[in-house]
């Protein structure tokens, strides 16, 4: 996927691939309207922790693009709107606060808009750099040519670079350290079978899509050497929120004595929260469970419970890889 850009700021507009249509349709959304970007985050047209942060940073900067009077009011309205889109990935709030600090530092200067866009560009470039560093630190999880299992989607689509967990897999594959990747389909929105499969295919990595419930069986058969996923929010003690189903993978790894790794940039670490119990877990609409691609699959009136994320406790995590290094338990991210 060399040169592939899922998100970029071009000609004063944000351009991002519509992830809700992949892999069957490759279509880009191009806009300078922060409300359209907020909607895209809510609808998972742009998704994944780092990409949500990048999109929100540009959206907040764009909110004052054509505003001459009352830009403080417009800016704070946009901040609130963007912060209300999705609650779990901390990258969103981190990126909004970076733009907000820049706004506060420069509020009385000319070219305020240019300064905010410059800051958003820095966030973008920095994310690219973090992916490269994670890919290098992550190589040490491969003791031999390995069969890897991953969940949800963590690659080029959700970062400015090659990705978090996916970036590590891709770099290791290039060095001959990956034999095969099992991609959990990731119910209900199929980030694995639609998006990770898209990235694996474009990167030439051999893979099979599996249903989420197949993982334990594969582990028992000795067909998985290691599991690696991304994260949406990691608390200071190393508890990690990620796509629903991640926790059960970690439990299954423990049972089968298989290492379980998390890869995420430090922008995913929330030092203000001590444990995973403090993480707000997003609940999604029942329509994402009782229909697939707009086709009803169960009765409309059946009750549904749909948490988008779960929390893997630190004691189930073998190591956490960030751009700063390879972190082993006991985790203490207050000092990273
Ligand atoms: O609901 P999503 O698709 O935004 O959830 C995304 C995930 O859980 C990813 O695994 C996580 O953001 C890591 S992204 C590098």
Short description:
The chain has 336 residues and is an alpha/beta fold. It has helices at 34-42, 49-62, 71-83, 90-106, 112-138, 165-174, 191-203, 215-220, 246-256, 287-290, and strands at residues 7-10, 13-17, 28-31, 146-150, 178-184, 207-210, 226-229, 233-235, 240-243, 260-263, 269-270, 291-292, 295-296, 309-312, 319-322, 325-327. The site of 5-S-methyl-1-O-phosphono-5-thio-D-ribulose (MRU) has 19 residues, from helix 2 and strand 9.
Features:
336 residues; alpha/beta; Four Helix Bundle (Hemerythrin (Met), subunit A); 2 domains; seven-stranded mixed sheet; 18% strand
What does this structure look like?
With 336 residues, the chain is an alpha/beta fold. The protein has 2 domains: 7-132, Up-down Bundle (Four Helix Bundle (Hemerythrin (Met), subunit A)); 136-335, Translation initiation factor eif-2b, domain 2 (Rossmann fold). The chain has helices at 34-42, 49-62, 71-83, 90-106, 112-138, 165-174, 191-203, 215-220, 246-256, 287-290, and strands at residues 7-10, 13-17, 28-31, 146-150, 178-184, 207-210, 226-229, 233-235, 240-243, 260-263, 269-270, 291-292, 295-296, 309-312, 319-322, 325-327. Strands 6-5-4-7-10-15-16 form a 7-stranded mixed sheet. A 4-stranded mixed sheet has the order 11-8-9-14, with helices on one face. Helix 2 packs parallel to helix 4. The longest helix is centred in the middle third of the chain and has 27 residues, at 112-138. It is globular. The protein starts with 6 loop residues before the first strand and ends in a 9-residue tail after the last strand. Bound molecules: 5-S-methyl-1-O-phosphono-5-thio-D-ribulose (MRU). The site of 5-S-methyl-1-O-phosphono-5-thio-D-ribulose has 19 residues, from helix 2 and strand 9. 5-S-methyl-1-O-phosphono-5-thio-D-ribulose is lined by residues 44, 47-50, 89, 152, 154, 158-159, 164, 191, 229-232, 242-243, 308.
């Amino acid at each position: 996927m060399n040169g592939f850009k899922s998100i970029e700021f071009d000609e004063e507009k944000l351009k991002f691939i519509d992830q809700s249509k992949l892999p069957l349709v490759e279509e880009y959304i191009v806009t300078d309207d922060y409300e359209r970007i907020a909607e895209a985050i809510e609808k998972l047209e742009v998704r994944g922790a780092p990409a949500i942060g990048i999109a929100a940073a540009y959206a907040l900067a764009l909110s004052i693009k054509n505003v001459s009077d009352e830009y403080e009011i417009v800016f704070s309205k946009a901040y609130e709107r963007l912060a209300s889109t999705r609650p779990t990935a901390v990258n969103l709030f981190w990126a909004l606060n970076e733009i907000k600090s820049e706004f506060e530092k420069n509020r009385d200067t000319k070219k305020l808009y240019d300064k905010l866009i410059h800051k958003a560009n820095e966030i973008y470039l920095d994310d690219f750099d973090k992916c490269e560093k994670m890919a290098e630190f992550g190589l040490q999880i491969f003791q031999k040519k390995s069969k890897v299992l991953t969940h949800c989607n963590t690659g080029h689509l959700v970062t400015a670079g090659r990705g978090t967990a996916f970036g590590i897999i891709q770099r290791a594959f290039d060095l001959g350290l990956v034999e095969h990747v099992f991609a959990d389909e990731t119910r209900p929105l199929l980030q694995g079978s639609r998006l990770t499969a898209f990235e694996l295919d474009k990167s030439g990595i051999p893979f099979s899509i599996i249903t989420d419930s197949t993982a334990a069986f594969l582990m028992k058969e000795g067909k998985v050497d290691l599991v690696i996923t991304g994260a949406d929010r990691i608390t200071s003690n190393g508890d990690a929120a990620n796509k629903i189903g991640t926790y059960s993978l970690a439990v299954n790894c423990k049972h089968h004595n298989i290492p379980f790794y998390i890869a995420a940039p430090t922008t995913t670490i929330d030092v203000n929260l001590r444990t995973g119990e403090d993480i707000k877990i997003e609940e999604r609409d029942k329509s994402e469970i009782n229909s697939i691609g707009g086709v009803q699959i169960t009765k409309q009136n059946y009750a549904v419970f749909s948490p988008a994320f779960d929390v893997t406790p630190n004691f189930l995590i073998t190591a956490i890889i960030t751009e700063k290094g390879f972190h082993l338990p006991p985790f203490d991210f207050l000092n990273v």
